Amino acid sequence: MPFAQLGLVPELLRAVKHAGYETPTPIQVQAIPAVFAGKDLFGCAQTGTGKTAAFALPILQRLKPGKGRRLRALILTPTRELAVQVAESFGAYGRFLSLRIGLVYGGVSLSPQENDLRRGVDVLVATPGRLMDHMSRGNVDFQHLEFLVLDEADRMLDMGFIDDVKDIIRTLPKKRQTLLFSATMPYAIQRLADEILRDPVGIEVTRRATPVETVRQTVHCVAGWDKAKLLNHLLENQVMSQVLVFTRTRRGAETLTRFLNEHGKTAASLHGDKTQNERTKALEAFRSGRYSVLVATDVAARGLDIDGISHVVNYNVPETPENYVHRIGRTARAGEAGDAITFMAPEETSSLRAIEQLIGQSIPEEAVEGYSLPPPVARPVKRVGTRVFRPRRLLVSSGGRRR
Question: What's the predicted TM-score (pTM) here?
Fold first, then answer.
């Protein structure tokens, strides 16, 4: 089905063509007519499925330019990186329309954002905390608001923003169209949807909490102190063009980035201790190919929309199973293939089991061709007084699977 059959106006069709898209994705086919019909929407969709265009295109079409600049559409996102990307998408799709897009997020000065809001915007993309700062200063007028979009609602819940979101919603006009998108549907998000959506259209483009089908998932059993060496080997001996590596901590991200650069790789780090300018530069360098590896924490990397990521590496098994789904959703975007590699130390076995239970499938273990790993339990014995402490052993059956 071409985009023209969805009823988009010529200006939007030109913008979509200019962006290089020819046919809509499944979520766009389902969501765009529902938004045109004025329906509230509850979308279960992972990133990389085209969900931003699924709400941006119909909202832009319905926001006919009026007299003056009045805030008529509010999009809330959990992170500044996602806010920037959503605003850029609105700008790209609305390039031939006379609409103004505003963007507010934390980590930068309030003043330029205040000036933009006072001049007036038609669409505002915001993170909850910074939006509440502007609301407390009287910089935002929701009187004419027609659309509210909650993007990646589950992540807003994970990051502790859900109360802020509820406070913001209480100040909005009750007569509005609300769209809620989430990759997973925990109980708190389902309850929020029940509270704010009116007779919504439900759209689920993939089974809940399942990874994208085109992602090839593997596990390498490796002790923690050998993970950096194994990653360096993979980067040198496999075709890995653009690699996103997830670490559990900010310090771990910095340490691994230094190790990779010392071994001749081009790597940058992305985490909460970075300034907004540093994060923006790292992302731009990774997108452009100047860096082939981006080492990030979950909070910093959530919602990244970067085409061409060939591999996602879970340097640490995520402790929250849902984060695994979010992580590997960075690759295999828009129907492309991708690889997700997980490094599992013996003490991380239970975390992997929880992930497999969530996604409803086993993730196969593989040996690394041309690389001989020492046994993951071969850790130096640590003596304390007269007692000897040894790590719990990873039991392996004769078939090579974990037990």
Answer: 0.67
Indicate the Cα dihedral angle 3, 85, 49, 193, nearest 10°: -100
Q: What secondary structure letter does DSSP report for 199?
A: S
The CB-side HSE value for 186 (13 A sphere, CA atoms) comes to 13
The answer to whether 76 and 168 have CB atoms below 8 angstroms apart is: yes
User: Which tokens hold the place of 206?
Assistant: 């993939």
Helix axes 128-136, 162-170, angle to 10 degrees: 40
Quote the DSSP letter at residue 158: H
pLDDT in tens, 315-354: 999 988 878 888 888 887 766 788 999 999 999 999 999 9
Residue with tokens 């850029």, as numbered in its chain: 88
Determine phi and psi for 216, rounding to 5 degrees.
Answer: -90, 120
- Specify whether the CB–CB gap between 103 and 172 falls below 8 A: no
Between CA 136 and CA 142, with CA 141 as vertex, the angle to 5 degrees is 110
Domains, in order of start, for the chain: 3-204 (3.40.50.300), 215-389 (3.40.50.300)
Instruction: Determine the Cα–Cα distance for residues 147 and 172; give it in Å rounded to an integer.
Output: 10
> What is the separation of C-alpha 314 from the centre of its chain, rounded to a whole number of angstroms?
15
pLDDT digits (tens, 9 = 90+) for 203-246: 987 655 566 678 999 999 998 889 999 999 999 988 898 999 99
Mapped onto helix, strand or coil, the DSSP state of residue 295 is strand
| DSSP-based three-state secondary structure for 215 | strand
CA distance linking residue 113 with residue 130, whole number of Å? 10
In whole angstroms, give the CA distance from residue 134 to residue 123.
15
- Looking at residue 384, what is its pLDDT? 40
Strand boundaries in 297-356, DSSP class E: 311-314, 338-344
pLDDT digits (tens, 9 = 90+) for 161-206: 999 999 999 999 999 999 999 987 888 899 999 999 999 999 987 6
Q: How far is the C-alpha of 393 from the C-alpha of 395, rounded, in Å?
A: 6
Q: Which residue has the higher pLDDT, 251 or 380?
A: 251
**Cβ within 8 Å of residue 89, ≥6 positions away:** 52, 53, 56
| Gap between the Cα atoms of 243 and 339, Å rounded | 10
Pairing of strands 147-150, 73-76: parallel
Using DSSP, state whether 204 is helix, strand or coil.
Answer: strand
Question: 303-313, pLDDT tens digit by residue?
Answer: 677 778 999 99
Residue 371 CB-density burial (10 A; 0-12 exposed, 13-18 middle, 19+ buried): middle
